[in-house]
Design a protein that fits this description.
The complex is a heterodimer. By secondary structure, chain A is mostly beta strands. In chain A, 0% of the residues lie in helices and 53% in strands. In chain A, a hairpin with a 2-residue loop joins β6 and β7. Chain A starts with a strand and ends with a strand. By secondary structure, chain B is mostly beta strands. In chain B, 0% of the residues lie in helices and 50% in strands. Chain B starts with a strand and ends with a strand. Classes of the chains: A mainly beta, B mainly beta.
Chain lengths: 111, 117
């Protein structure tokens, strides 16, 4: 079972701040890296699907980058808003069969 | 669109009881999977299926059985419930063609909160 790590475990930022967090995964046999947003009392929702080294994806104020050679992905949030408060999960597929999730980064945006 | 539907939303069992968690999707997704979510541990894969008639074990399969008789349904059976199976269970599906399930996002159900006393 491959090991997917995320850091930090949690963070608190002020409204308007920009922030970023990291997902680390084994670089061998890489197939795909997914980012999900998980709000309390809801189910995870997909943000990005990334497959190619150097990929950059953007959705509104949220963007992600991917480095498959060194095994990491960054998620950036520009100008954080209280509604961005959630747990952000990354999931890695290294064998084209199933995904292993990281433990998540819990973001709290303070108004 | 219903998407991925899980039932029940909540369940309390006594140790040793058996039950089935239901999962159905109406998106014609080939890939379906079950995860459990425990504090501090994220989502861990229990079982998955890449199509009707095909199932395989994930990271934590012990104590659980699955079957995939149709594309739409992927029930998870607890054979003899134990307190260690107290958790929140999520079913997820994605579109796939052959080996390409990895490039389609997972669609999650709303979860089943199970307590075993």
């Amino acid at each position: 079972i491959l090991n997917v790590e995320q850091s930090p475990q949690s963070l608190h930022v002020q409204e308007g701040d920009s922030t970023n967090f990291t997902c680390s995964f084994p670089s061998s046999n890489f197939y795909a890296l997914h980012w999900y947003r998980w709000e309390t009392a809801k189910s995870p929702e997909a943000l990005f699907v990334m497959t190619l080294n150097g990929d950059e994806k953007k959705k509104g104020r949220i963007s992600a980058t991917l480095n498959t050679k060194e095994g990491y992905s960054y998620l950036y949030i520009k100008g954080s808003q209280p509604e961005d408060s959630a747990t952000y999960l990354c999931a890695c597929d290294n064998y084209g069969q199933n995904f292993v999730f990281g433990p998540g980064t819990r973001l709290s945006v303070l108004p | 669109n219903a998407g991925v539907t899980q039932t029940p939303k909540f369940q309390v069992l006594k140790t040793g009881q058996s039950m089935t968690l239901q999962c159905a999707q109406d998106m014609n997704h080939e890939y379906m999977s079950w995860y459990r979510q425990d504090p501090g541990m994220g989502l861990r894969l229990i079982h998955y299926s890449v199509g009707a008639g095909i199932t395989d074990q994930g990271e934590v399969p012990n104590g659980y059985n699955v079957s995939r008789s149709t594309t739409e349904d992927f029930p998870l059976r607890l054979l003899s419930a134990a307190p260690s199976q107290t958790s929140v269970y999520f079913c997820a599906s994605s579109y796939s063609t052959g080996d390409s399930s990895y490039n389609s996002p997972l669609h999650f159900g709303n979860g089943t909160r199970l307590t075993v006393t």
